[in-house]
Write a structure and sequence with these properties.
alpha/beta; Rossmann fold; 5-stranded parallel β-sheet; globular
């Protein structure tokens, strides 16, 4: 009988999810909570800035294309807040064009995932962030 390797839960991360699409935001929140992470969510940049100041996320999953302030501008503003300079930023978008990816990296994002997010990739990424290899 073949057995699968044991899986170990990740130590919880504080994760801020920012996406103007309610279904995408909810899906990420539920998945992250199932994995044991503490999650705070926002539908727009201004709300995310207010929440982040008190929530102090370890990781921000930010949709790049949002009305008003885009996700990359938001990422820069979040990392400028006291205590969030080392927060890992993961840019999320439904578009995988190289200009957007390059801009994401130039504005401080360390990771870029195309939506819908692959849960296996996300879990691995969070593991690398948690253990200091992906911040």
């Amino acid at each position: 009988m073949k057995s699968s390797p044991p899986t170990y839960p990740l130590p919880p991360l504080r994760v801020l999810v920012v996406d103007d699409e309610p279904d995408a935001r909810t899906t990420l929140r539920v998945l992250l909570q199932i994995w044991g992470h503490l999650v705070c969510e926002a539908a727009q940049a201004r709300e995310a800035l207010e929440l982040a100041a008190s929530f102090k996320p370890d990781v921000a999953l930010i949709d790049v294309v949002m009305p008003g302030m885009d996700g990359l501008e938001l990422a820069a503003k979040l990392r400028a807040l006291p205590g969030l300079e080392r927060m890992a930023v993961v840019a999320l978008t439904g578009h995988s064009d190289s200009d957007k990816i390059q801009r994401a990296y130039q504005t401080g994002a360390r990771h870029y995932l195309v939506k819908p997010v692959d849960p296996v990739l996300l879990r691995g990424l969070l593991g690398s962030i948690r253990y200091g290899n992906g911040a």
